[in-house]
Specification:
The chain is of the alpha/beta class and 132 residues long. The strands form 2 sheets. It has a 5-stranded mixed sheet. α3 packs parallel to α4. The longest helix is centred in the N-terminal third of the chain and has 13 residues.
Length: 132
């Protein structure tokens, strides 16, 4: 099994990133974890980085995403939506557990609490803890 680990760039190369990868590895024994920090060139415009992410997702069986204090940025949000549209399994890392989100509808209706838009058109989504 190949899993794409979607997380905010603020976690890149931090102890939190290492901890979350270990949590994913514990739940999905023998899975290959695709970490965009190490597999996608980060010195590109964001739209190019997302194109690389979508190509990586095409080669994965599932996506596991984590929040940053209950929020995800628009890049992680777009990766999740892309994964749903591509028929991939979607999991939210909640504490140390990966909880499957069974459908796009569940994610939008129950998973997203609100959207926050900044003045520069950046979007953040406030994510509920999995309860489905």
């Amino acid at each position: 099994m190949k899993i794409y680990y979607a997380h905010h760039v603020w976690k890149y190369d931090t102890p939190m990133e290492n901890f979350e990868i270990k949590c994913i590895e514990r739940q999905f024994k023998d899975a290959v974890i695709v970490n965009p920090r190490t597999t996608i060139p980060q010195d590109q415009p964001e739209s190019v980085i997302l194109d690389y992410a979508y190509k990586a997702l095409n080669n994965c069986d599932a996506i596991v995403f984590s929040t940053f204090s209950g929020m995800i940025g628009h890049g992680v949000f777009n990766e999740i939506i892309y994964a749903f549209n591509a028929g991939k399994k979607v999991y939210q890392l909640d504490g140390t557990e990966c909880i499957e989100i069974r459908s796009y509808t569940d994610f939008i209706k129950h998973g997203i609490r609100d959207f926050i838009f900044r003045g520069d058109n950046r979007m953040y989504a406030v994510v509920n803890s999995p309860c489905w």
